[in-house]
Specification:
Layout: E1 3-7, H1 15-26, H2 35-44, E2 53-59, E3 64-71, E4 84-90, H3 99-113, E5 118-123, H4 127-132, E6 136-142, E7 148-155
Antiparallel strand pairs: 1-2, 2-3, 3-4, 5-7, 6-7
Helix pairs in contact: 1-2
Length: 166
């Protein structure tokens, strides 16, 4: 894997490519189809010290190859649990190169450093990926519109082997 991982806040020129990558992946009904929605969302998620925060993977040419965010919540009906992984994406041509795993490790490290002991993620197609990163399946959630998504959870461990508490 030949990428570096940075806070998107430090690489604001990559907001547009990350937004377009997300739009290409998820910009179809029932999700918002307007690319401007994905630009606004990605911009809003480019925090640094508080939620939401996003990391971006950048290849040697300076191109965004993936991104992952951590936000207060991702499922409208589950705002009582926080934080949530949001907007995890890897360029389809680079999947399987370890970029997603590296992004997850970085965002989990940020979470622990900022006092979060656990997190949740909702996914329609990537359950196996998250399980390979140590996440545990909790349930198949069906929202008010009848859309189904897997919900997974992970408790984070500190580097010294203890469990971080919030």
């Amino acid at each position: 894997m030949t990428v570096q991982i940075h806070l998107l806040a430090d690489r604001s020129a990559l907001i547009e490519p990350v937004a377009l990558m997300r739009w290409r992946e998820w910009g179809h009904a029932p999700a918002p189809e307007d690319p401007d929605f994905w630009r606004r969302t990605t911009t809003a998620e480019a925090g640094r010290d508080t939620l939401p925060v996003t990391y971006v993977a950048v290849d040697a040419s300076g191109r965004a190859t993936g991104a992952v965010g951590l936000d207060v919540y991702d499922i409208e009906e589950r705002q009582e649990t926080s934080p949530w992984i949001a907007g995890m994406i890897v360029d389809p041509d680079r999947r399987g190169d370890g970029i997603g795993t590296a992004l997850m490790e970085r965002i989990e490290h940020w979470a622990v450093a900022h006092g979060f002991a656990e997190a949740w993620v909702a996914t329609e197609r990537a359950r196996g990926f998250y399980e390979s990163c140590g996440w545990r399946w909790l349930e198949m959630f069906v929202n008010a519109d009848g859309e189904e998504t897997d919900v997974l959870h992970k408790r984070f461990s500190r580097a010294d082997g203890g469990t971080q508490t919030a």
